[in-house]
Fold:
Amino acid sequence: MGNHREKQKRIDLSHLPMDIARIVCSPLLLLYRMKRLTPEGKCHKTHIKGGAILAANHTTFADPFLLGVAVWYRRMHFLAAEVVMKGKLRKWLLKGVGAIEIDRKGTDIEAIRKSVKVLKDGHLLAIFPQGGISREDQVTTLKSGVVLIALQAGVPIIPMHIVPRKRWYSRREVVMGDALDPRAYLSKKIPSTADIERVAQVLMEEMNRCVVHQ
Amino acid sequence: MNTFERLVKIFQITFEDNTDITGITPETSLREDLGVNSIGLLYMAMAVEEEFGIKFKNEDFVSIQTVADVIACIESKA
Structure:
């Protein structure tokens, strides 16, 4: 019985659309020739293991796919605003490739719950904590929900910066900072909302560190 | 300990540094009196879910304005 259940878990088809999309989109690896860098400008060679949140700046609608290319070796889900998920076909396609719809104006506890689940299942989740598209390099505002999700799932947050393309043929670059464990910044076991906001500030500084040293 | 007292205990932990929760009554408004933002509300809801073994839906937050609304929601789900 136990073996049967394990086998069922292994033959989980829920990620099939995402895996097909990854195969179909694999030529993007060649097109973008993605460079993964450390904040010091060196080549980032370490592969991310286990569940983790990728927290990046958000400059275009293509950002989730850029991050997907940067972590091509892993399945990656991403949070998508309700405005992006408009239309039945688009919603179906985006959900298929791992989008989790979130209502940014309301109190979307169900989206938080889904996010925590994918992270606990050991997957990656891309979040753009600025809460929308911003053309500025520096992150000046950050929604602390990203820290709440990380704490609930018990996973680290990897601060990232998607470097804007200088020319259309330039290689795409993504700067990846050191994994930030929110629990390391807490003085007590059960944090307060003020603690969550404090960690969000630390994350913002780490995200900006990826910009300064690019 | 009744539902109100258990809820106040949750407020003490979750809003510890941000909000003055002394003199809290069932009529206290979460947003106006306690200054709870959407993240605070989510975090409080998660703590309530754990304490009372219930699950909130997104629609529940539309009617939650005061402490009494939270109690009513908990009791309707318990």
Notes: Chain B is about 55% helix and 0% strand. The longest helix of chain B spans residues 38-52.
